[in-house]
Design brief:
Blueprint lengths: L2 H5 L5 E10 L11 E2 L1 E14 L5 E5 L4 E5 L9 H14 L7 E7 L9 H17 L5 H14 L8 H8 L4 E6 L5 E5 L4 E7 L7 H19 L20 H19 L4 H17 L6 H12 L3 E7 L6 E7 L3 H14 L5 E4 L9
Parallel strand pairs: 4-6
Antiparallel strand pairs: 1-3, 2-7, 3-6, 4-5, 7-8, 9-11, 9-12, 10-11
Helix pairs in contact: 2-3, 2-4, 3-4, 3-5, 4-5, 6-7, 7-8, 9-10
Bound molecules: adenosine-5'-diphosphate and magnesium ion.
The site of magnesium ion (MG) has 4 residues, from α3.
């Protein structure tokens, strides 16, 4: 099914936005800290047309599902909430949005930690900007996208995913200060590319674990008398805390310092070491890893051609990210998955994609 088949006419416009993977600075964007995401080749395309019956109609090719918005005072559930949210946050900001036909197709894996949700929001907002000539820039697109996800999809997310989808590309890393939104685009480390492998373990405990960690770190910041853990730069200061707050704060402060080291300019080898240290910190201090992710990361770290590897995203399952020698990612993935799957797991490569096209 394409736009024409679903809505009986061609679209007026379309826009794309990529998914993202975070290379360093994990579980820190909600403490006002620094992050280092990059865009992945897979992206989401949103096509728009005007609706003639006064109602919004949303169609997802990936889900083969259509949602008709009969009552704009009632937020829809599921994928429609992200699109509806984008429309509503623009309306609240004073823009007048007509009734629309929206068609979504995507090559970003959904729910795997590669931020298909931000790609959907940013592509929707870009398409709306184009269709209606809205005077909004890429940072505002990211901010509207985050508001849509928080207020309409009900996900208490930071700003990283939307900023990465809106501002990053696949050749560069985006250094982002999530407090000030100060940012710098840097090339990927020399002779290196990104490999993302899914552990095959669903992130079942991720949201309860996330809420608990967040509460612990907010308590740690209160005890130390700062607004957020971002304000602590000397790791020794965390020694004043009781456990487990000390371990949680230790992760955040050391992770921040790792990102700042990259900002000074590092080799691929050093970047890899920092990723390995990040994994150890997420496993031992922040305690968001699981045996499957530890196994996958351990195999990656021992494999020739891998500079470094760690879990990425929320943890409690989900994916690993590795920095590997250029043009070696697919060979490395085959080797790693053979060992990982022999250990009884069911991993799969997510980036680079093995599909024919990332273009969605
Ligand atoms: P992630 O962002 O890591 O992929 P999330 O749980 O945040 O995982 O977002 C996934 C949700 O986003 C899906 O369950 C769906 O509601 C919505 N979504 C993303 N991409 C699409 C798409 N192409 N079609 C329909 N819904 C999508
Ligand atoms: Mg998401």
């Amino acid at each position: 099914m394409d736009f024409q088949q679903v809505f009986g006419k061609p679209p007026e416009t379309q826009a794309k936005a990529p998914g993202r993977v975070n290379l360093l600075g994990e579980h820190t964007d909600y403490y006002d800290c620094f992050v280092l995401p990059t865009a992945i080749p897979q992206c989401t395309t949103v096509q728009l047309g005007f609706s003639s019956d006064g109602q919004h109609h949303f169609y997802s090719e990936n889900l083969n599902e259509q949602v008709n918005i009969l009552d704009i005072n009632h937020t829809p559930s599921g994928f429609a909430s992200y699109i509806f949210g984008c429309i509503e946050v623009l309306q609240k900001a004073g823009y007048i949005i007509p009734s629309l036909c929206v068609y979504v197709k995507s090559s970003v894996p959904m729910g795997s930690g590669l931020s298909s949700s931000a790609a959907l929001e940013v592509a929707t907002l870009r398409a709306l900007r184009q269709l209606l000539n809205l005077p909004i820039d890429d940072v505002e697109i990211a901010q509207f996208a985050q508001q849509a996800e928080i207020q309409y999809a009900g996900v208490q997310c930071g700003i990283m995913d939307q900023m990465a989808s809106s501002l990053a590309d696949t050749e560069h890393i985006l250094f982002l200060d999530t407090r000030t939104l100060e940012r710098r685009v840097m090339p990927l480390p020399n002779n290196a590319e990104i490999l993302v492998i899914d552990s095959g373990v669903p992130r079942t405990l991720a949201s309860s674990g996330y809420n608990q960690r967040r509460a612990e770190c907010e308590e740690a910041a209160r005890s130390l008398g700062v607004k957020a853990l971002r304000d602590i730069t000397d790791v020794n200061v965390t020694k004043a805390l009781t456990q487990p707050l000390q371990r949680r704060a230790h992760h955040v402060v050391t992770e921040n310092n790792r990102v700042l080291e990259v900002l000074q300019g590092v080799t691929s080898e050093r970047f890899g070491e920092l990723m390995n240290a990040s994994h150890a910190s997420l496993r031992d201090d922040y305690e968001v890893s699981v045996p499957a992710l530890d196994k996958l990361v351990e195999i990656l770290q021992k494999t020739e051609g891998v500079f470094g590897a760690r879990l990425t995203g929320a943890g409690f399952g989900g994916a690993s990210v590795a920095l590997v020698r250029s043009r070696q990612s697919k060979g490395i993935a085959t080797h790693v998955l053979e060992q990982y799957n022999q250990a009884g797991y069911n991993g799969r490569i997510l980036v680079p994609s093995l599909g024919l096209s990332d273009a969605a």
